[in-house]
Amino acid sequence: MIRPVSHVAAMSPYALAQLDPPAGQRLVSLSQNESLRPPSPLIAQAVAEAAANGHLYPDPDWTALCARLAELHDLPEQGLLCGNGSMELIAGLAQAFAGPDAAVLAPANAYPFFRTVAQLARARFDTAAEVDGCVSFDALLAAVQPDTRLVFVANPGNPTGTRISRRDLLRLREGLRENTLLVIDEAYGEFADDLNEPMFDLVARGDTVVLRTLSKAYGLAGFRVGWGLFPPQIAVQIRKVMNPNNVSVCGQAAALAALNDQDYMHETCDLTAELRDRFADRLRSAGFDVPKSHTNFLLIRFADQSTATGADKALREKGIFLRPQSGAGLANCLRATIGQTADLELMAAVLDRWAEEFQP
Ligand SMILES: Cc1ncc(COP(=O)(O)O)c(C=O)c1O
After folding, report:
1. Which one of 27, 43, 226, 282 is CB 3.0 to 4.6 Å from 213, fit for a cystine?
2. In terms of DSSP H, where are the helices of the chain?
3. If you classify domain 43-260 with CATH, what class do you get?
4. Which atom of ligand 1 is nearest to the CA of 154?
5. CATH code of domain 18-38+263-355
6. Tens digits of per-residue pLDDT, 36-69?
7. Adjacent-strand bridge partners of 185
C-alpha cells in the first residue's frame, strides 16, 4: 500500500465553498469574498500582450510589480515578495518558521488556512479567544507559550470583518518575544486604508511581516497574486520554500495593470462599502445580528448552529450560497460576500421570509 506521510493523512482537505444550486436555479455565490465587479478594464490589453510571452518562464523576482508596490506604498523594494495568492506566502511562513517543535498562534475565529498551514508544518496550533467578535491582543498575549514561534492575525479579520487598531497591534508586538514572528495579514487592508493606520513600518523591526493581496479590492482572485513586506532575513528563508516561478506572466501583467488603475480600485472599495453598510443596516433592521464590517463581506450571527443551518438551507434552496463558518469556530454564523445589488436584495428577501416563518 502506498502511504502518505502521517500528518497529511490525518488532515482533512481544505474546505472550499460548496456551490451546487438546485437543478434549474441560477447560482448566486456570495461565498468566497470575491470582488463585486471584474478587474480594471486596463488589464485586458496587458494580459493579451503578456500571453504572447507565455512560452517563457515568468520574472522570478516580480521586478516591475515590486517597483510599483514600493512606489505606491512608500516601501523599500528589498523584502517585497509576491506569492501565488497570499496563501502561498502564508504557507511559506509556516513551512519556514514553524515545525514539530514549535507552535503557531492565531485568534480563535481566524481565517482557517492558518490552521491548515500549521498542520502542514506539523506545528501545534494554539488559539486565543476573541472578545465581542474582535481579536484581543490581551488574549493573544496570554495564550503565548514558550514554544510559540509564529503569530497570525488577519486585520481586518475574516470571517468576523472586524479590525483592531494600530495601537493594539503595536501593544501585541511589544508583548511578544522578539524571536516570535508576527504576521499581520491585510488581505482586506484596502477596505480599511481610509482609517490611515498602515502597519508596514513595523517590518523594519525585523520580527513582523505584513501581507496583502490583489484578490479582493483589485478583483484579481482568479489571477492569484498576493504580496508582502518581509524583513530581508525572513524573505531569504521564505524564498527557499516557494515555487521559484510562482506568479505567471499573465498574473504579473494583470497585477501591474490593476495597480496602475488606483482610481478603479478605490471606486471598487467605495461601491463595496456603500452596499455593505446599506445591507448591514437593512439586515439589522430586520432583526439580524450583523457586526460592523471593514471588509467586502458581512457576518450574520444567529442564535445557534441549527438556526444558522436553517437559514443557510432556505438560501440554498433559492440558489444563494453564503459561507457557513464552523471552520472558523463560528458555527452559528453565515458570511455574506458583498456582491451585486440584485443578488444582495434576493438574499435579504429570502432571509426576511425565513425569519418571518422560523424566527421566534
Ligand atoms: C484573511 C485572508 N488571508 C488570505 C487570503 C488569501 O487570499 P489570496 O487569494 O491572496 O490567496 C484570504 C482569502 O480569502 C483571506 O480571507
Report:
1. 226
2. 6-9, 43-51, 63-73, 86-97, 113-120, 137-143, 166-175, 232-241, 249-259, 262-285, 305-317, 341-358
3. alpha beta
4. 1
5. 3.90.1150.10
6. 999 999 999 999 999 999 999 999 999 999 999 9
7. 154, 211
